[in-house]
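Tip: read the tokens left to right.
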């Protein structure tokens, strides 16, 4: 089962404060995702699975790698978001009309990238839940 929705943007008329608020929400969601993935990776390390599951070791290793890859992306997004928030602070000093447009377009790109990443992460979590549910010892 895969979850996917169509991206829609509502960013074109946002103030700098609203853009910064979005950034804080992104960081909060990234922090929560980091905690969820750490918990799920911990579950993969426990000896709670049916030992006769076909390709158990390989599947566990692949899922752990996917979690590690997601964690690397989280770190990248956190760094980018922190840098972007600093840029937004600089926007207050901008005196030109097109400066705000630049940040709206940049925000739009970041919003879309994070939207895609959170969809990928949700699908990874579904895959993990389904695997754990189907292979856990009764």
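Filled-in amino acids:
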């Amino acid at each position: 089962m895969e979850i996917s929705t169509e991206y829609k943007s509502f960013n074109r008329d946002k103030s700098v404060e609203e853009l910064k608020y979005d950034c804080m929400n992104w960081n909060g969601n990234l922090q929560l995702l980091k905690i969820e993935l750490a918990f799920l990776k911990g579950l993969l390390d426990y000896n709670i699975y049916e030992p006769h599951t076909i390709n158990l070791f390989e599947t566990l290793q692949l899922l752990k790698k996917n979690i590690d890859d997601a964690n690397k992306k989280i770190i990248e997004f956190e760094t980018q978001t922190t840098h972007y928030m600093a840029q937004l602070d600089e926007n207050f000093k901008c005196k030109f009309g097109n400066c705000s447009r630049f940040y709206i377009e940049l925000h739009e790109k970041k919003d879309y990238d994070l939207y895609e990443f959170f969809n990928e992460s949700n699908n990874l979590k579904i895959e993990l839940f389904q695997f754990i549910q189907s292979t856990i010892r009764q």
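The mean pLDDT is 89. The longest helix spans residues 97-135.
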